[in-house]
Amino acid sequence: MADMSGKVALVTGAAHGIGRASALALARAGAAVCVADIDPADGAKTVSQIIDAGGRAIYAQCDVRRADETRAMVAATLAEYGRLDAAVNNAGIAGSFDHRLHEAADDMLDAVLAVNLRGVWNCMKAELDVMLAQGGGAIVNMASVAGLIGAPKAAAYTASKHAVVGITKSAALDYARAGLRINAVCPAYTDTRMVQAAVTADPRLAAIMSKAIPMGRLGTADEIAAAVAWLCSDKSSFVTGHALVLDGGLVAI
Ligand code: NAD
User: Fold this and answer.
1) How far is the CA of 177 from the centre of ligand 1 (A)?
2) Annotated catalytic sites, by residue?
3) CB contact set of 97 (below 8 Å; sequence gap of 6+)
4) pLDDT in tens, 66-77
């Protein structure tokens, strides 16, 4: 298991799903955690779950689309815990999966890129300043199998996640000799609110998703969080610029 004893981590989009599971996994591994989100009520629940289990956590209200708010999130983490060892840039939205590109709304592309790409950009800028000054740190960006392969009726989301993989690899090279490791994870369909919303909109998707995965089931948020915690920890000390696939075999087909 990853050991994050004495370390400080932040997780964006930590009020739900993979972000919450990652915050809990990092706290279980010993990290003090800044739980960041735009949803204060459910963000507070993540904080409570960590504290109830004996860990340390604070909540930061942060819309990752706003550079001033990502800087404030990092500042709040430093004010509380004095350093930042690991950052999980997880906040993301799906956009719509029901139109081919020529039918899709232009503002849907802008909305998806604002969170999934600009959000990661904003977070990394704020985090890198601190990690460079410290001389070390680990960043994990939340991509997707849609960052590696195409998906029908998902051009905006797929573009955003390919961009996350690209930004991860370039930044990993920029800071490889500065003691910073920067990686991405690429989950396939994982059982969270995001997937549940897609299934509610089109119930046929439940069977389509499970059938698409060779293991025959969706991933769990805890399975993704375990990999996130490993990439945040010193156990992965020689890993940087990697896009770790967590997909039940999907991209092996
Ligand atoms: P989710 O909807 O359960 O959680 C997303 C979280 O991000 C929520 O807490 C939400 O409030 C927060 N968020 C949304 N916009 C935000 C913003 N502008 N600023 C800050 N926080 C914001 O979804 P999830 O499935 O847990 O997704 C988490 C990440 O995992 C996303 O980046 C998603 O693209 C990625 N992902 C999900 C799956 C999947 O199948 N669930 C697969 C691959 C990748």
Assistant:
1) 31
2) 157
3) 151, 153, 154, 157, 198
4) 999 999 999 999
